[in-house]
User: Which sequence fits this backbone?
């Protein structure tokens, strides 16, 4: 066999990447928009699930606040695009800061039902002719969201990661809830459950595609997905990955060998939070509206279920798991009747997934995708060899003396 | 809404000196080669309470510290903040009306007792299995749901006591079955990295239970009728002042404190259960066995206690306590499949505050969180916002505890 079995996953990976890159041009059925939407959402979940698996599977730090960082990214971008404007002349009514020859103004919060004009609308009457008001760039907003995610990741990491793993799980679940409560309660700023609107990723379109076309977003999301996988692969294979895994295996032993445990835990936490924030900011711009519901526990549970069912100890397995499960969940939406009972699949599918999550954890700890990858990389053979050698050394009568 | 700057400046002052005390004190102790384990905590609390007045003598004399040193400054901080708040917002109901204060206090205590009961279940599980159950809130939710369905759908008009017993039974059974299938293999070495496994599998259970209930019971809020009516009663002192007056739905004491019936009943049931639990833990063989396992697994096994049975029992009991608090609170709050999430988070706060695995800690922590939430919900000027932020109050406590004393009030050293 000329093709090494070990290499097959790599080749399949290239093949899959090529397929995904070509897909929008090849596919042309009537449900094009729907399928494209599914892919974009699948990439979004894949980014989240794989970065969560880097944090949980490699570093052993179980955060239930991954979606909170995602939401920080999304809300950071949304608040920026909603409340920041650039004006060439001072308005006199808004909070304004001179900014490279222009004025950066912060709009006053309007709330959901307010009928009054914002400070900019009032100023418009008096502004001299020729004044240009620019919407801020979408990409700066995304960058700000991502930086906010990193900042919060750093602060929370510094607070909690010096303690045992359980504290991180306890704290992040609470953090997620407090963030949701705050976003829901600060209706004046975030518009609460009504949701905050975001402009599309390309407000004026690009390469002849309209702003609502899914193709540009598809490629942006795909590229971010590939880039995050690339970064994480590099991290995992570097010394950093080694340190992080040593922390997971035995924190005390790693510390004794000179790994600065807290530093590396904080680093991996910041990196994964940043990736989550980037995914959130992009998805926010894609969907066009964000509500506090993006960080209900269900979303976090879904990401965890995806990572675990795929294989939490392998970022590729987690990403593949996320994509497959996203499609399966989407196609399981149709409700049906059994006799007099209406089976509402939109809820029951989640029950089934909860059950699969628990059963996977119990009986197939490595997930359902990872064993496939392992089979190719023959690590099962390696394990077998180790076991045989161990057995031999125990079995040999003189083995103990050497 | 008039909300003066006095309060914010005081808060800033307190936090600023707290941070300074927290950072500088351990350095000074370290330089003098003294024990620094409590220096951060004591420095922060002394700094927050007294500012430079207390910190400078502390830095100059560097006495031997223990955690007790932070109790009085801690209380002082609360007094200072309360005073600043009263100055800043004199018209606020929780400054101006003493009967409102007493009612909030008593409500805080009443609800705190139930929080404590729930957290007790979680800490019981943790002390014996070494596992934090992330599905604890779901047991609470199921307890409430069972009571509602028992009284309003399955057996209409039956006694609430039967419903509560049914809720206990159901949650106990779920706990036992789950422990047998999913957690028992952890202790026999069948599962790699049991700590991580436990976090994930209980989280999976929470996900599963929440959506199972939503799928079967629907997502509409439900609320049970109050369990019992108070007898109509009135007691006045000889001078004609009111001592106790009860109407069917309310109890008022000294014309100042008013406790709604559902909360009162809930607290009463909680106290009753607490006494039963203490008798069970301290007076029966099985209860002693449980405590023995929490002290030392191996030694308990040598003494003839089967740790596996105790694990199952502890998980079932812990779930049952959560179910019981849910069962008593379903007449107070409206009930949704999602109520468990906030309840879970609150229990986590309580057990960290009280010290992981400490039974008295869970109870005291429950009371403190109950009072703190009552103060927050009652005093923040904008009532809708105050209610929205209820999960946040606990998180403030949790952050402070993790920053200053991660072992909690009664915790064993980590």
Assistant:
């Amino acid at each position: 066999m000329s093709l090494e079995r070990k290499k097959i996953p790599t080749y399949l990976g290239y093949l899959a990447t090529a397929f995904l890159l070509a897909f929008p041009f090849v596919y042309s059925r009537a449900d094009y928009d729907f399928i494209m939407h599914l892919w974009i959402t699948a990439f979004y979940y894949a980014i989240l699930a794989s970065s969560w698996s880097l944090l949980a599977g490699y570093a052993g730090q179980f955060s239930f606040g991954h979606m909170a960082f995602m939401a920080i990214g999304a809300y950071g971008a949304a608040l920026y695009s909603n409340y920041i404007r650039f004006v060439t002349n001072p308005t006199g009514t808004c909070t304004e800061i001179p900014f490279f020859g222009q004025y950066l103004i912060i709009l006053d919060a309007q709330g959901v039902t307010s009928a009054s004009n914002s400070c900019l609308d009032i100023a418009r009457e008096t502004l001299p002719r020729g004044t240009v008001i620019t919407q801020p760039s979408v990409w700066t907003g995304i960058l700000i969201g991502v930086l906010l995610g990193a900042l919060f990741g750093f602060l929370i990491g510094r607070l909690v990661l010096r303690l045992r793993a359980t504290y991180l799980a306890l704290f992040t679940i609470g953090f997620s809830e407090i963030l949701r409560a705050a976003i829901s309660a600060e209706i004046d700023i975030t518009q609460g459950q009504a949701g905050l609107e975001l402009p599309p990723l390309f407000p004026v379109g690009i390469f002849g595609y309209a702003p609502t076309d899914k193709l540009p977003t598809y490629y942006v999301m795909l590229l971010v997905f590939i880039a995050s996988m690339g970064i994480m692969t590099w991290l995992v294979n570097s010394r950093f990955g080694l340190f992080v895994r040593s922390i997971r295996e035995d924190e005390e032993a790693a510390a004794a060998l000179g790994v600065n445990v807290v530093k590396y835990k904080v680093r991996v936490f910041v990196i994964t939070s940043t990736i989550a924030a980037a995914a959130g900011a992009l998805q926010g711009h894609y969907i066009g509206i964000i509500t506090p519901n993006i960080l209900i526990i269900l979303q976090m549970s879904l990401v965890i279920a995806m990572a675990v069912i795929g294989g939490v100890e392998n970022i590729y397995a987690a990403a593949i798991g996320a994509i497959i499960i996203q499609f399966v969940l989407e196609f399981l939406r149709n409700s049906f009747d059994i006799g007099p009972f209406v089976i509402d699949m939109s809820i029951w599918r989640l029950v089934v997934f909860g059950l699969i999550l628990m059963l996977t954890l119990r009986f197939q700890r490595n997930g359902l995708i990872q064993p496939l990858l392992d089979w190719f990389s023959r690590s099962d053979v390696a394990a077998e060899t180790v076991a045989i050698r161990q057995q031999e050394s125990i079995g040999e009568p003189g083995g103990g003396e050497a | 809404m008039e909300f003066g700057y006095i309060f914010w400046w005081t808060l800033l002052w307190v936090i600023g000196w707290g941070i300074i005390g927290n950072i500088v004190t351990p350095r000074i102790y370290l330089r003098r080669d003294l024990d620094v384990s409590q220096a951060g905590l004591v420095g922060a609390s002394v700094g927050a309470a007294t500012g430079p007045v207390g910190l400078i003598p502390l830095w100059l004399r560097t006495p031997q510290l223990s955690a007790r040193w932070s109790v009085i400054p801690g209380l002082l901080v609360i007094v200072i903040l309360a005073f600043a708040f009263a100055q800043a917002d004199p018209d606020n109901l929780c400054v101006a009306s003493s009967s409102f204060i007493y009612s909030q206090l008593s409500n805080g205590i009443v609800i705190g007792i139930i929080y404590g009961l729930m957290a007790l279940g979680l800490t019981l599980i943790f002390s014996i299995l070494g596992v934090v159950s992330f599905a604890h809130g779901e047991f609470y939710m199921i307890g409430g749901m069972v009571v509602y369905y028992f009284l309003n759908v399955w057996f209409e008009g039956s006694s609430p006591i039967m419903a509560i017993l049914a809720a206990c039974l159901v949650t106990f059974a779920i706990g036992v079955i789950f422990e047998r299938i999913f957690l028992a293999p952890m202790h026999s070495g069948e599962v790699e990295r049991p700590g991580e496994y436990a976090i994930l599998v209980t989280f999976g259970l929470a996900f599963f239970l929440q959506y199972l209930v939503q799928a079967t019971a629907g997502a509409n809020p439900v609320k049970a009728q109050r369990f019992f009516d108070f007898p109509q009663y009135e007691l006045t002192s000889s001078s004609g002042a009111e001592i106790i007056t009860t109407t069917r739905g309310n109890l008022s004491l000294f014309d100042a404190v008013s406790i709604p019936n559902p909360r009162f009943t809930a607290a009463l049931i909680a106290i009753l259960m607490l006494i039963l639990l203490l008798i069970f833990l301290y007076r029966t063989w099985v209860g002693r066995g449980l405590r023995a396992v929490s002290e030392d697994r191996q030694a308990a096994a040598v003494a003839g206690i089967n740790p596996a049975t105790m694990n199952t029992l502890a998980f079932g009991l812990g779930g049952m306590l959560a179910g019981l608090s849910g069962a008593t609170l379903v007449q107070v709050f409206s009930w949704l499949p999602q109520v468990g999430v906030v309840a879970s988070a609150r229990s986590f706060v309580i057990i960290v505050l009280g010290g992981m695995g400490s039974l008295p800690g869970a109870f005291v922590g429950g009371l403190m969180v109950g009072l703190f939430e009552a103060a927050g919900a009652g005093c923040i000027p904008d009532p809708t916002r105050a209610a929205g932020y209820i999960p946040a109050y606990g998180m403030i406590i949790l952050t402070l505890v993790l920053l200053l004393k991660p072992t909690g009030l009664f915790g064993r050293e980590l």
Remarks:
- The CA atoms of residues 229 and 315 of chain A lie 8 Å apart.
